[in-house]
Amino acid sequence: MGEAQLVRKAMLGDAPALENLIGRYYDTIYAFCCRRMGDISSGSDVCQEAFLKMVQNLPKYRERGYFKSWLFTIASNCCNDAFRKKRPTAGLDESIADDSPAFEQGTENAMLLKTALDKLPAEQREVVILRYYHDFSTNDVARVQHIPAATVKTRLYRGLKKLQKLLGEDILLET
Amino acid sequence: MKRKKTILFTDYAVPPVVQEQKRACVENALAGMGTVGRGGTLKEQVKTQLGYVGPWFWLGLAAVLVVMLVLLGEASIQAGTQKEALLATLALFSASGPVVACLSAPVLARSYANDMWELEEASFYNLPRLTALRLFICALAALPVMTVLAVAGLGITGAIQGLTALAVPFLLASGINYCILGRLRGLAGSLCSIGIGLLLAVLCPALFLWAEEILPLLWADGTQVVSAITVFACGLFFVLSARRFIRNPSITY
């Protein structure tokens, strides 16, 4: 069954269609939330929250073939909300220095990259994650963040530059 | 020369999904789906939607009401000698009603203008119910206007004639509007609807007056029967097209 048909059925209250839809996107959204939040525990909670919000907002979804972008927008907003709740007085740009045990088990390279990514401003981090981990085009990222494509390119350029600076001159970052 | 260490983006992998968490997420979402559509009593549902109707909508409606009263007053003065003028005025305003509703539709549906963020409350209802609620608000707004028309007109023209002059253009114009809005989207739908509404507002009084002259010649005693059949047919058309309009889940302005 096609995605559009699944979405349409889920909008009309079809439980198997909704289950199928969540099954299709859970892993992707989970990975996005974990990387965006910087720790597995918060990422998992935010992922749950995002799918609940998706269900609540399905009646308002406008069928234009951008369901994935729409879902990522919800997830992104849930992450922003979670950051606000986590640190009410801190700005969104501040990184969360919270290394969960699950990530610490990764390779040295992974830890270096994670630490550097966590230090990026939230909007640049999100652009980098969407572009390099979820294969989003510039236009898709623009749709998720509700910003012009040119701004996405600027954020991506600045994000990568800062990332390289954070990793140091001895390390070469490759896509 | 010191060789640079290479890090790939893919090195930073997320641990695999815990299936129990995934299952819990699906269950939560399914439970959440059960709450969508439960919006309390009709009064509460209408109240949440009324908050999104701008003040200019009510001001515009009040202005239309005042214009109607003034023009109906003028027509009533001539009613003794020119009953047709009053009937034509009734038909004109009756057909204009849906046009006013169409003009107000974009503001009633403005929650769609900025994707999903504008109406938090609206997430409790599905789109067909949301559309039905907004049409219900339109109907509530049209009620005082139609009541004024009925009170001002029926006493002078006679029940059957007055009712036909009021109901037929209104039902016909509303039905056609719903037909168009159920099939066309966006500005094209709204403009087309408004255009046809205005055309009907001009045509209906003329047709009505023509029928008033021709019908007694063709079938002297059948005026009331024809009126009743016409009202019924227009009512049926209105109900069917309104039902389709409400059931269409992808209507946007």
Structure description:
The complex is a heterodimer of chains A (175) and B (253). Chain A is an all-alpha fold. Chain A has nine helices and one strand. Chain A has helices at residues 3-11, 15-37, 40-57, 67-86, 101-104, 108-119, 122-133, 138-145, 149-167; one strand at 171-174. The longest helix of chain A is centred in the N-terminal third of the chain and has 23 residues, at 15-37. Chain B has helices at 19-35, 42-50, 55-77, 83-108, 127-157, 159-183, 186-218, 223-247; one strand at residues 5-8. Chain B starts with a strand and ends in a 6-residue tail after the last helix. The chains are: A mainly alpha (175), B mainly alpha (253). At the A-B interface, helix 1, helix 2, helix 3, helix 6 and strand 1 of A face strand 1 and helix 1 of B.
Describe the structure using short key phrases.
heterodimer; A: 175 residues; mainly alpha; 9 helices; globular; B: 253 residues; disordered C terminus
Count up the helices of chain B.
8
Query: How many strands, what sense, and barrel or not for the largest sheet of chain B?
Result: none
N-to-C terminal Cα separation of chain B, in Å? 64 Å
Note the beta-strand portion of chain A.
under 5%
Q: Sketch the topology of chain B as an H/E string, one letter per element.
A: EHHHHHHHH
Mean pLDDT of chain A: 82
Shape of chain B: elongated
Low-confidence stretches of chain B: 111-122, 249-253
Number of strands of chain B: 1
**Helix content bin of chain A:** over 70%
Question: How would you sum up the global shape of chain A?
Answer: globular
